Prior knowledge:
With 331 residues, this protein is an alpha/beta fold. It contains 15 helices and 11 strands. The strands form 2 sheets. Strands 8-7-6-9-10-11 form a 6-stranded parallel β-sheet, sandwiched between helices. Strands 2-1-3-4-5 form a 5-stranded parallel β-sheet, with helices on both faces.
Amino acid sequence: MKVLFQARPDFMKNPAGDTVQIVSTGQELKKLGVEVHLSADPNLDLSSYDLVHIFNITRIKESYMFFLNAQKQKKKIVLSPIYWPPNAYLKREGASSNALAVWKHMQPMRSRLVSECTLLLPNSQIEMDILRQDFPKSAAYKVISNGFPDSFIGATPQQFHAQFPDLPQEFVLCAARISPRKNQLWLAKTCQDLDLSLVLLGPVNDPNYYKSVMSYSNVTHIGTLQGALLASAYSAAKAHALPSWFETPGLSSLEASACGTVLISTDQGSPTEYFQDMALYVHPLDDLSLSNALKQSFDASPLPLMQHVHRHYSWSKVAQTTLEAYKTVIE
């Protein structure tokens, strides 16, 4: 089977959740014998491919061009929408006044992809329900969850502590690109109020926002970690907090819980479907929810969620269900 992945051209230069999903799914599918190619060319000759798999309709312009090209060449189209309506986030205090208008202006393009692709692969049933709500005409679907690297099972804190001996032994971790949507400023302020050390991992998406976050003396930013060192960082943290405006469900939340870390997550998006009652949830418009969750995290056990995530959400399992979905499309 020969599959073409298509995604925004800067998905490696500006890494986000879709980057991890694309790279991890591709690597695991190759282990299952699938020939996976990747291209951001909207005019590519698709004659040699069995199907085209497009990722991300939040950034719709590029995805729409890939879709038109695949449709023109009569190819089967599989779509991972990675979709959540950002209305509350775009209406927040300090947001750009025309951002919501731009989002709404692009909805007809998203609607066309959702209704005319061969198969939708939402990351959760909650995401699919929202897609149906926003786009009443939608294609057939199969839920394909997000995952964590199988190699993260059994992670221990030693490597991280050895690499960063000057960091406090007890800290709260947030692994995410530093941007207003991820809400690290709220997290930094609340940690300072509670006298907690906060360690941030991830690239800087918004330099001005980053400056505001780093104005709190309890915050350390390490940059981006990968592989075993990232797993060790999760394992070393007292809790992992991702208080974003929304997540589907937050890849770092999955990774942290797989490494045996207490999880604090936004309740907006699909985290509750993945983590059920085994995480501590916050609402981005409820200031008290975060301070309460941080206090509770020190007495919470990470084990039930860790076992649940190990059972259901490894990338190897995700690739198997993805391949089953491909087979239904081709057959």
